[in-house]
Design goal:
The protein has 727 residues and is mainly α. The protein has a domain of 297 residues. 46% of the residues lie in helices and 5% in strands. It is built from 27 helices and 11 strands. A 3-stranded parallel sheet has the order 7-8-11. A hairpin with a 6-residue loop joins strand 3 and strand 4. Helix 15 packs across helix 16. The chain is globular. The chain starts with a helix and ends in a 24-residue tail after the last strand. The relative contact order is 0.11. InterPro entries: GRDP-like (IPR009836).
């Protein structure tokens, strides 16, 4: 019995991952039994539903139909901006549905799935494949828009290494010198490009770094142009811009307004002989005689496929993603040598996330620009030659760096030190190497991060916001005010406990994301409150995320006498029960128990259903891939944590039973974007993509084991440096 049917029988309902055909509002099924061999039930016209039976469309849309958005970014977000943000997320969700369910898009036809055994799962995977290809193309289109439009909207020039000195106010005062631009709807890009820009901004330090690199101080000060964006999205969440916007985009970028209308071929120059190559975006399921295994795997050898393989007819070289990533590093090395353009990850201070520069005297030994000196002076020839040898990967670059930093004479040379001075790598220099390398792993683009993966991880949050649907709540504005208060408290926790990891709930994360989209305001706010520019970790180990959430929940209750996660799912109930220790109850009801009792006694818990409430925000959760030696250790730690949660859940059930409350239901299956269920132990875990459908690898996986591709170069990581991923 297929998994979908089993789950449907358990829930007493019919589940179908196929897109249902829309019916007129006044059409309803006639009550008739439909046995398996009988014709499907007929439909009959019924009287339209009376308006008195429910809120009208105007009432449903009242919260966001007329928003009052400031023409200049505010210091702190307000309810109107949060609602405008939710409108934008709803438009993104609609886009994802349209793309995934468009049969035949990119020549991916649902009929191909009929040949495989698990048809429902394969249909879901095909929809995910369409979406993954669409995003990969959107990232390329965003890059064109960035270079052809955004860069030309203000007097800008690329940052040069010699400008990174304390006496250069344009660099060290970049965050205060920009003036917000006034955008109109005619300046907006297509929605797929806007979606990539949105995800880019939600990686604050990466976005700041690239704005500094390209000299875009006004763009950075502007943030998301909310007035123009809000005006372009109607109450049905359709994205509508004037024809002038479409004309401007197509003329500037030479791309179609609609992503799907762009060519199915990707033009690439051979990294070895510069021959122009026309590579198909995908080879997956393109033939009428596609093998069943290819359909089931949903992978190919095109540019938008994970296993890209294309041979240059001129020089015979195989072009794959590994070669393109190494080529990016080679180009950046050439630009470092010829144009003095610093490498990615060497521009901002890792401590505070702002442009900080040395004096002229310190310039040759400044630790955060150490990678520029190492690559530019010592490794330049080896890096440039690497592209022409065999099948290079970024792991080869890592090994070059490892070999160089082990040699103390090399370290002395690049730091202009005498033979009598130390050649030991400083902590800040190790951190600088890690930051620089993080810009190149699985990232062939010109930006500080692989934007397609960022969009995919962000789409998990988009789906959650659509499911909760605060926009159509009668108390939408009050909900926004409430979550903004929680968000301000969240920042207070970050400022008060800088060495701990604070993890947001979904409502807090909405406030946090909305603030980040007003880039300069968010920078100024966190610099004042926290003394540094607070980044939003785009990738976080799912186990560390859960541990951080438990700590945040306990700290929030202790500081503010309210529950943190206003949710009654089994996980949130288990986390809250862990806060209540037996030792505290010796002297009566503990503080945490009083908070929990108040949550239920006030009636607030009844408004927080377990399947649709704002619990842990896990869109940035990733599965950590460890080395073989450490896999067993981490598996044991994970199992121990699961057992602790099991015990806490049993405790929560006993307490609920004693208090006469509903026992929190345990849910093991969750539903993905395409309606297909997947097994997941808890809501803190990452939602991995189905199979290897994305070209840059799995965006919900992060290598961490020593020596693994994607991890730190040996000698650059230590206990004092390695708190978290290389972001």
């Amino acid at each position: 019995m297929p998994l979908l049917d089993k789950l449907s029988a358990m829930r007493g309902e019919k589940t179908n991952v196929e897109a249902s055909e829309k019916l007129p509002e006044n059409v309803a099924p006639v009550a008739a039994a439909a046995a398996s061999k009988e014709a499907p039930p007929s439909y009959a016209v019924t009287d339209p539903i009376s308006e008195s039976t429910g809120p009208s469309e105007a009432e449903l849309n009242a919260a966001f139909a007329s928003l009052n958005i400031s023409s200049t970014p505010k210091e702190f977000p307000d309810a109107d901006t949060c609602l405008a943000h939710l409108k934008l997320l709803s438009a993104f969700h609609g886009l994802k549905e349209d793309v995934g369910y468009t049969d035949g898009l990119f020549n991916l036809w649902d009929a191909r799935c009929e040949m495989v055994e698990n048809r429902d799962e394969t249909l879901a995977k095909m929809r995910e494949k369409r979406w993954a290809l669409y995003i990969a193309r959107a990232v390329e289109r965003f890059e064109e828009w960035w270079l052809k439009v955004l860069v030309n909207m203000e007097p800008s020039k690329r940052l040069e290494g010699k400008e990174m000195v304390a006496t250069n106010a344009d660099f060290v005062s970049f965050t205060s010198r920009g003036r917000p631009q006034q955008w109109t709807a005619a300046m907006l890009p297509p929605i797929d490009v806007l979606m990539v820009w949105h995800s880019f901004m939600l990686n604050p330090r990466n976005y700041e770094e690239d704005c500094v690199r390209f000299g875009l101080k006004d763009l950075w000060a502007t943030g998301m142009p909310w007035i123009a964006v809000n005006a372009a999205i109607d109450t049905s969440f359709h994205y509508n811009v004037p024809e002038e916007a479409k004309t401007k985009f197509t003329q500037a970028t030479r791309r179609h307004w609609n992503n799907a209308e762009d060519s199915l071929m990707k033009m690439v120059h051979c990294p070895r002989c510069s021959q122009q190559l026309d590579i198909p975006w995908t080879t997956c399921c393109q033939s009428e005689k596609t093998p069943a295994k290819e359909v089931a795997d949903m992978n190919g050898q095109g540019f938008g496929d994970r296993d890209l393989s294309f041979f240059c007819l001129k020089c015979g070289s195989e072009v794959n993603h590994d070669l393109l990533r190494v080529t990016k590093f080679k180009k950046d090395t050439e630009n470092l040598i010829m144009r003095d353009w610093p490498l990615g990850g060497t521009i901002l201070s890792p401590e505070i996330g702002a442009p900080v520069a040395p004096t002229t005297i310190e310039w040759n030994t400044y630790p955060y620009t150490f990678p520029n000196r190492l690559v530019g002076l010592e490794l330049r020839a080896q890096v440039i030659e690497l592209v022409n040898n065999g099948n290079p990967t970024m792991n080869d670059i890592k090994e070059l760096i490892e070999g160089a930093i082990k040699d103390k004479s090399v370290v002395k040379k690049v730091n202009s030190k005498s033979v009598f001075e130390s050649g030991v790598l400083k902590r800040q220099e190790r951190l600088a190497i890690r930051k620089m390398m993080s810009r190149y792993w699985e990232n062939p683009s010109i930006f500080a991060l692989e934007l397609g993966g960022a969009v995919i991880r962000q789409s998990v949050f988009v789906d959650k916001m659509y499911q909760i649907d605060w926009l159509h709540s009668p108390a939408a504005r009050q909900t926004m005010d409430r979550l903004l208060q929680k968000y301000s408290r969240f920042i207070h926790i970050i400022a008060t406990y800088p060495s701990n990891t604070a993890v947001p709930t979904l409502d807090v994360d909405l406030g946090w994301h909305t603030h980040q989209l007003s880039t300069k305001s968010y920078f100024d706010y966190t610099m004042v409150k926290c003394k540094k520019y607070i980044d939003h970790d785009d990738k976080m180990d799912e186990d560390a995320l859960s541990s951080g959430f438990e700590w945040t929940s306990k700290t929030y209750e202790k500081l503010f006498n309210e529950v943190y996660s206003e949710c009654t799912c089994w996980y949130c109930e288990a986390i809250r029960s862990k806060h209540i220790s037996r030792s505290n109850k010796i002297f009566g009801t503990s503080k945490h128990e009083k908070v929990l009792n108040n949550f239920y006694d006030s009636g607030a818990a009844k408004l927080c259903p377990p399947d649709n409430s704002a619990h842990i925000s896990s869109h940035n959760a990733v599965k950590v891939v460890e080395s073989e030696a450490r896999t067993a250790v981490y598996a044991a730690l994970r199992r121990r944590r699961e057992l602790e949660l099991e015990e806490a859940y049993k405790k929560a059930c006993k307490r609920a039973q004693a208090k006469g409350r509903p026992i929190p239901p345990r849910q093991d299956y969750y539903y993905g974007a395409w309606g297909y269920p997947y097994l997941m132990y808890g809501p803190w875990m990452s939602y991995g993509m189905m199979g290897g459908v994305y070209y840059a690898g799995d965006p919900c996986v992060m290598p961490m084991g020593a020596g693994m591709a994607g991890n730190c170069a040996a000698g650059t990581c230590s206990g004092g440096v390695g708190a978290g991923g290389c972001g």
